[in-house]
Amino acid sequence: MKRRMLLSRLLAAASALALLTGCGAQKADNSPSPSEPVTVTVWTYYNGEQLESFNALVNEFNSTVGKENGITVESSSQGSVNDLETNVLASAEGKVGAAPMPNIFSAYADTAYALDQMEQIADLSEYLTEEERSDFIADYLSEGDFSGNGSIKILPVAKSTELLFLNETDWAPFAEATGASYDDLATIEGLISVAQRYYEWTDAQTPDIPDDSRAFFGRDAMANYMLIGARQLGCTIFDAKEGIMTLDFDKDVARKLWDNYYVPFIKGYFSAGGRFRSDDMKSGSIIAYVGSSSSATFFPSQVITDNMSSHDITLTILPCPKFEDGEDYAVQQGAGMVVTKATDAEIRASLIFLKWFTSPEHNIAFSVSSGYLPVTREGNSIDAIRASGLALSDDMDQVLTVATATVNDNHLYTPRAFSGGTDARAVLEYAMSDKATADRTAIDERMADGQSFAEASAEFLTDECFEAWYQDTLTALLAYEG
Among 62, 332, 417, 443, which residue's CB has the most CB atoms within a 10 Å radius? Predict the structure, then answer.
């Protein structure tokens, strides 16, 4: 009798445990195996060294864990982020000539949200245990919780933040002559002061050639400047919940953003000429820029000027400047991986690969070669990265040291997804930067015709100019509210 009672209790406990386990992650009845193999297709936007690194890891998975579990991952780059988005949407809509939907694709939140509205996305919360979720940096995982109920529609696999890239070779003589220091570049206000001094110092180097000052600084991703700058100043421009956006384009905050980008741009302290600021660094148009940590592999090793003279340069990495009276916010960016709805076996196979890829060992391997950051708490440590034994260049060591510290020392922010989010972000990306470029071009043309800078720039450095821009931008953004 005692034995039967004990057996009954054990069976009851086992049943209860099975039910509890099912709440955190579904049981693996349909997991792939060598006897029932599964092929998983992955679409990314990776290119260059990032693509090489990703493909190398895919090959490693296929020959090890994939082989053991009957899983073959087939990866292809779709080109740019925009190309990838176009192809995924074409597949989801069943357009003629479109390829079948991949099992996994790289996506930013707005694209993933659009596909989720089409009921194409798998909710991975059903397949991950609480322990597995807790391994990830919480801010990264919450990006894919569109409904606010703990869903996971995007799995973070590689993230980036923004850093200040400095041409150390051309900075050194300026710093020695003027006393400028790295500490001056810690704040946006300090950066502008340094940029003005550099503008004046470069002009003074050639007293026989008037008005040949050079810009000091440029910026990639203006939307990040607007969104993160606003958060540092206590304002959330896009506050989204359940796909609906409430706009807070505070005029005082907008004016501060204007005064600290548009005004120094008009004065010639900032510049933007090439497609990316790394292009401007290569041409010698600027010597510092803010860009993604993942852009480190594109930092030039030489400056090549218009007259085809060139010189080698070295890189120094510093934290992205913040507003001196602002809160500690930094951008989190980088597409995650979305798993599309498919058979249970295909979803499980996709998760086996993604869990393998995001484990510290393999995520760090991708980071070392790409400049992206590991997405787990264990992996996001420069000590863990160095302890991996992987070859780490001096430049990448700098990048990952500053980037991991940025993630650990700041609140990470990216807007929640909402309908029209990509287009609304585009307004922030171009509204100020396009006007700054156009107005500075007009000033240069007027000066070439004989006007002084004061005369040529007078109409642009007024309250009225800001007010007109603010109202136009506010109107454009209001179209996406609600």
Answer: 417
- Placement of tokens 């863990």 in the chain: 384
Strands (E), 196-331: 217-219, 238-241, 244-247, 288-292, 302-304, 310-312, 315-319, 329-331
Which residues is 316 bridged to in the sheet? Answer: 166
What is residue 48's predicted lDDT score, i.e. its pLDDT? 85
pLDDT of residue 18: 37
- Please check whether residue 247 is in contact with residue 478, taking contact to mean a CB–CB distance below 8 angstroms: yes
User: pLDDT at residue 16 above 60?
Assistant: no
Asked whether 292 and 122 are in contact (CB, 8 A), the reply is no
Cα–Cα separations (whole angstroms), residue 254 to 5, 25, 78, 162, 249:
72, 45, 37, 21, 7
Nearest-angstrom CA–CA distance, 371 and 50: 8
Say if residue 294's pLDDT is above 50.
yes
Residues 6+ apart with CB under 8 A from 4: none
**Residue 153 · residue 338 · CB < 8 Å:** yes
Contacts for 394-399 with beta carbons within 8 Å, 24 or more apart? 395/296, 395/299, 395/315, 395/317, 396/296, 396/368, 396/369, 396/371, 398/315, 398/316, 398/317, 399/163, 399/293, 399/296, 399/317, 399/371
Distance CA 205, CA 202 (A): 5
- Token code pair at residue 226: 């607007």
Of all residues in the chain, the percent with pLDDT exceeding 90 is 81
Question: What distance in Å separates the CA atoms of residue 47 and residue 54, rounded to the nearest whole number?
Answer: 10
Neighbours of 387 (CB within 10 A): 10
Residue 35 or 306, more confident:
35
Work out the pLDDT band at 29, boundaries 50, 70, 90.
low
226/436 Cα distance (integer angstroms)? 14
Half-sphere exposure at residue 167, Cβ-oriented, CA atoms within 13 angstroms: 30
If you ran DSSP here, which 8-state letter would residue 333 be given? B
Structure-token pair, residue 147: 């409904």
Q: How far is CA 147 from CA 41, 113, 118, in A?
A: 27, 10, 15
d(CA 165, CA 278): 9
Pairing of strands 238-241, 244-247: antiparallel
Q: What is the CA radius of gyration of the chain?
A: 25
The three-class DSSP label of residue 369 is helix
Q: pTM here? A: 0.86
Helix (H, G, I), strand (E, B) or coil at 339: strand
70-113 pLDDT, tens digit per residue, is 999 999 999 998 999 999 999 999 999 999 999 999 999 989 99
The Cα 409–Cα 319 span in angstroms is 11
